[in-house]
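In the current project phase, the collection of sequences with tokenised folds has grown. A sample record is quoted in full directly below:
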Amino acid sequence: MEQKFSIPTEMVMLPSKGLLYPKDSPLSAGKIEMKYMSAREEDILTNSNFIKNGTVIDKLLQALIVTPINYDELLVGDKNAVLIAARILGYGAEYSFKYINDRGQEVDTTVDLSKLNEKQIDESLFTAGVNEFAFTTPKTGALLTFKLLTHGDEKKIEAEVKGLTKVNPNGSFEVTTRLKYMITSVNGDRDQKTIRDFVDNYLLAPDARALREFYSKVQPDINLKFIPEGEDYTGEGIAIPVNISFFWPDIRL
């Protein structure tokens, strides 16, 4: 008699609670189903082509997500929650790594990923089913709307920055390119040419900084920082490193 096997799954709650996705999107439920990692997914982690082109983690997450979603539509903060869930389902919640403390010393530490908290956000600023927010620049009074970036947006930003860098290797394009994808209108004008011209020529540095700060305030996400224990530490937290070893500490590339 042929044996039938199944892999257990878990429901993962999204920091956005699904509030910013269109109502017809499966993501609007505020949760997605993910399966536990198997040997097949470990093959993905060691795929040299995926590692080389920087897609290995995305390939892994896509393989683990059971809910039929458009992966490119995932908000960056929600994707971070899926990332943490994938690590916990695959290798447990305890994650050991090294970091450099305030005295420049390398320190070994272990973090319980299941205890990472979601950012506190003001949901009254959300319009259900709409990923768009209004913002008035404090210096020039320009009326802007902007969106929270998705995984698909991040891919486009990366590709555009890479192309611009090839043309001008000494240039720096990350900040302005990201703003061009964030901003959806300027004084009611949604034309992409207008938005790009505004970012390149009329967006003052203090206004850009204020926009980024407000963006961070409304972006649902997981807090990927930890406070060192047993140290006289006064900072906002140290970033938890996320790389191949995040999923498989003993990996040999």
